[in-house]
Design a protein that fits this description.
Length: about 80
């Protein structure tokens, strides 16, 4: 299944200032074959998830995100909206 990432650019800039991590780097945590994802909480009717994954074999990231599937011309696509990392 293909995966798409999205985020709020203002939130991404804030995260980069606070934590020194860009959401482009946070995306790579999902490429870790040993990444672990768990449901975190429901906020505003939206299920929030946390994924823990390693980036470049030296950085472990906890990424807060939402997750859903969309149909794109007969192809199911997983959409990840990153909230923080």
């Amino acid at each position: 299944m293909d995966r798409l990432f999205e985020w709020d650019p203002i939130k991404a800039a804030s995260n980069h200032r606070k934590h020194g991590i860009t959401f482009e780097i946070a995306m790579r945590a999902f490429d870790d074959p040993f990444a672990q994802t768990r449901q975190d909480r429901i906020e505003g009717g939206e299920i929030r998830w946390q994924t823990l994954g390693m980036v470049k074999s030296s950085l472990v990231l906890l990424v807060a995100h939402t997750l859903w599937e969309e149909d794109d011309e007969g192809q199911t696509v997983e959409v990840v909206r990153i909230i923080s990392a």
